[in-house]
Amino acid sequence: MATTFQPRIRALSRRGFLVTAGGLGIAVAYGSLSQPAVGATTVPGAEGGFRPNAWVTIADDGTVTIISPAVEMGQGIMTTLPLLVAEEMDADWDRVRIVQAPSDAKTYGNPGFYGIQLTGGSESTRGYHALLRLTGAQTRMVLLAAAAGMLRVPVSELSTEPGRVVHPASGRALDYGGIAANGPLPEPLPQVGEADLKPSDRWRYIGKRTIRRVDVPSKVDGTAVFGIDVQLPGMLHGAVLRAPVQGERPDAIDDTKARTVPGVTHIVPLSYGVGIIGETVEATKRAKELLDVEWSTGSRVRDYDSRHLLEAYRAIGRDPGRRGVPAHVTGDAQAAILGAATVIDVDYMSDHVSHAAMEPMNATALVIGDRIEIWAPTQGPTGTQRFAAEVIGTTPDKVKVNTTLLGGGFGRKAEKDFIVDAVSLAKAAEGRPVKVVWSREDDIRHDKFRPLEAQHIQVGLDADGRILGWRHRIVADSVFARTMPELFDGKGGHDDVVTEGAHFNYAVPAHHVEYLRQESGLDIGFWFAVGVGYTRFAIECVVDEIAAARGVDPMALRLELLRDQPRARAVIETVARMADWDREREDRGLGLAYSDAFGSHCAQVAEVSLDRETGRIRVHKVWCAIDPGVAIQPLHIEAMMIVGITNGTGHALFERINVVDGEVEESNFDTYRVIRMSEAPEIEVAVVPTPGSPVGGIGQAGLPPTGPAIANAIARLTGGVRLRHFPFLPERVLAALDGWTAQP
Predict the structure, then answer these.
(1) Which of 403, 437, 471 is where one domain is finished?
(2) Is the pLDDT assigned to residue 169 strictly greater than 90?
(3) What does residue 515 show for φ and ψ, rounded to 5 degrees?
(4) Residue 12 lies in a domain
(5) Residue 743: what pLDDT?
(6) pLDDT for the residue numbered 15
(7) 3-class SS at 686?
(8) Which of 134, 173, 186, 214 could disulfide-pair with 145, CB 3.0 to 4.6 Å?
(9) Are 684 and 623 contacting, i.e. CB atoms less than 8 angstroms apart?
């Protein structure tokens, strides 16, 4: 079934803000779990105490508990967002405890994400930033008002220091614990606006390199609770045998042998497979192996062949008779290209890739009557409530979601299938929780892969090599048509996530981006940087092709095209200095790429070598300059760039999913090739923030420039060999070398 959300955008006034007093009771976020979700600076829940709003609780001992609304999946958001509240309320960070938000979109939904609880799109900090700073400022105002009553002085005579309110004139002070124990909540609650926020020169925490992530200690000492770690009293285990081809159903099930396995309690026919419930993981695994299932043969996905389909997509992109949906239009690009002195006409392609998160898909569910409780590493508590409710025919308000830590998400854990598994089996074993963990083979074979896509780009140049028009056609299936059909239909059939990144900030007089949707039957989904990961690959390589056609330096061309973009120019100039761009290297090449995706400006230079006998590429070093606007956590930003560059290197060189006759050929890390530690490049990162600029997204910003930087380095090293197909497999590199040497 399609995932649907009702878009609800919460407006945040720039003139004033008041945190609602409703819903102040903070639920225990981890249900029956006996251990905190993360380490010493977090707690599983907060009860009692002084509650100025739905986000903050202050205990009598001065401990401040702050709700973290987004999901922690390794991107550090459980530190970043509460830090904004702590900064504005002048909390003592050493006395802050952090709680994962309960499933309550009305209170904790992301204002920038349709008001739902969903972590993705590098949207968490951008969406919550203003709300949480204002929340912290209002909390500070509440504390000041309460302290004024206790000290019998005007509020105007008071100020705050970390963890306390001070009255400089008399030398008296009240710590936040004392106010929590004895101070009344003021009526009405004070309103705050942007003028009440701290100026940057008074920040104690934002932008400082001394802040450490709160989730790391428990991950080091082993006390962190991921979804796969959940243990509940009376818990059963579940597994699901899925059809080898998406869309098929079990026509006949012979479970005779499976039922003989000791510990097996239920065999559950499902519309998409067969579920097994047992007392142990081993029992369910063995029973799954012994099932004999006759599958239907009517799914259209049986005709899906990714290799042949990609060539078909390429042909569609080149066919002027095939019209799509305009995604961005400036000027008349087609006319400009027709009148050009030179036309660059190229295709770029990308294979399917798998999420392959280190923690495979899993969820635990308990069904009692029309009520459901779920413990899961989900990116979307709001969606999880809807998915679960659909299974048993109840309403989302009767579904409680306990969000655990995620061992990687990349968009995959916003999906419904693993939630449906757990709830379906828990329904069959009503009254006992059932935990379903996918095998690695299931995780890869039944993933929601990044779209297979082909891009056709035409660029018209005048006699001096200046760009007249740029036409960009993107051919791929849709993610939103399946996951958010109302949004997809409301945009006239345009899929923002598939074409994301194609609208660039280069100074081009005529620019046309077009989306040609395909409907090939295979479910595809969100993946790390999704569209930007391949649109910027094509764009940045084409910019280098233009530079070669003009006979100019690729860096100089970018600076020319970004003449009105000071932040973009700054990161390019910075990374060029870092890499010593003009210095010649023996047997190595440098490649440059730039991206402004997710509101952050990122430039990278990759240093590579090439074995011309085998076609193998080695990435030795990547330099990166990143401008996120306001750098809330500089150390964390550096770490996220390293993550993106490492993943981007593996994605560019190795990662590929092949689907033949509807079946996925890869099944584990022996066949789905990811980057090894020995293959990771040395990485150097410079964070170059622009104070006063909007906050940019960081989670995915590091990946898009990496692949094109590698491709451009190969072109520079080889005198012009272009790699236009992700990933750069050795056989593809050799073919490109042969094709180049065969040219006159």
Answers:
(1) 437
(2) yes
(3) -110, 125
(4) no
(5) 45
(6) 29
(7) strand
(8) 186
(9) yes
Q: How high is the pLDDT of residue 240?
A: 98
Of the pLDDT bands very low, low, confident and very high (cuts 50, 70, 90), residue 187 is: confident
Please identify which residue in the block is written with the tokens 């059939």: 493
Residues in CB range of 4: below 8 A, 6 or more apart: 386, 484, 485, 486
Write phi, then psi, for 83 (nearest 5 degrees). Answer: -60, -35
CB 277 within 8 A of CB 429: yes
E strand or H helix at 252, and its extent? Answer: strand 250-254
- Ramachandran sector of residue 478 (left: φ over 0; alpha: ψ -120 to 50; beta: rest): beta
**Per-residue tokens: 458:** 């035409």
Q: Is the pLDDT of residue 622 over 80?
A: yes
The per-residue pLDDT for range 392-428, each reduced to its tens digit, is 999 999 999 999 999 999 999 999 999 999 999 999 9
The domain in which residue 143 lies consists of: 56-220
Which of 24-38, 281-295, 460-474, 627-641 has the lowest average pLDDT?
24-38
Q: How many angstroms separate the CA atoms of 450 and 470, rounded?
A: 25
Give CA–CA dist 367/376, Å, rounded: 14
Helix, strand, coil: what percent of the chain each, to 5? 35, 25, 45
Domain count, the chain: 3
Q: How far apart are CA 390 and CA 595, in angstroms?
A: 40
**Helix orientation angle between 530-550 and 706-718, rounded to the nearest 10 degrees:** 30
Residues 533 and 433 in one domain: no
Please tell me the distance from the alpha carbon of residue 315 to that of residue 310, in angstroms, as a whole number: 9
Task: Return all residues near 738 (Cβ < 8 A) that are at least 6 apart.
Answer: none
Nearest in space to 127 (alpha carbons), one of 139, 116, 138, 136: 116
Is residue 307 a part of any domain in this protein? no
> Residue 188's pLDDT is what?
86
Residue 314 lies in a domain: no
| Residue 27 predicted with pLDDT over 50 | no
In whole angstroms, what is the distance from residue 249 CA to residue 282 CA? 25
For 416-449, letters b (16+ CB in 10 Å) and e give: bbbbbbbbbbbbbbeebbbbbbbbeebbbbbbbb
Paired sense of beta strands 467-477 and 362-368, if any: unpaired
Say how many CA atoms lie within 13 Å of 75 toward its Cβ: 27
10-14, 610-614, 622-626: range with lowest mean pLDDT: 10-14
Q: Are 457 and 542 in contact (CB under 8 A)?
A: yes
**Residue 114's pLDDT band (cuts 50, 70, 90):** confident
Tokens of 623: 């330099």
Percent of the chain, pLDDT > 70?
93
Whether 208 and 407 have beta carbons less than 8 Å apart is answered as: no
How big is the CA angle at 352 (ends 351 and 358), to the nearest 5 degrees? 130
327-356 per-residue burial string, b: 16 or more CB within 10 A, e: under 16: beeeeebeebbeebeeebeebbbbbbbbbb
Could you tell me if 205 and 238 lie in one domain? no
Quick one: CA torsion of 488, 409, 24, 229, rounded to 10 degrees? 140
Kindly list the strands in the beta sheet with 172-175, ordered across the sheet, starting from the edge strand earlier in the chain. Answer: 159-161, 164-167, 172-175
Query: Is residue 37 in a domain?
Result: no
* Domain end position, chosen among 162, 197, 220: 220
Tokens of 286: 């063995």
Residue type, 276: I
Distance in angstroms (rounded) separating the CA atoms of residues 714 and 22? 59
Q: Residues 160, 143: contact at Cβ < 8 Å?
A: yes
Whether the CB-CB separation of 619 and 607 falls below 8 Å is answered with yes
φ, ψ of residue 528 to 5 degrees: the values are: -40, 110
What does the pLDDT read at residue 11?
A: 31
pLDDT of residue 124 exceeding 70 = yes
pLDDT band, residue 113 (cuts 50/70/90): confident
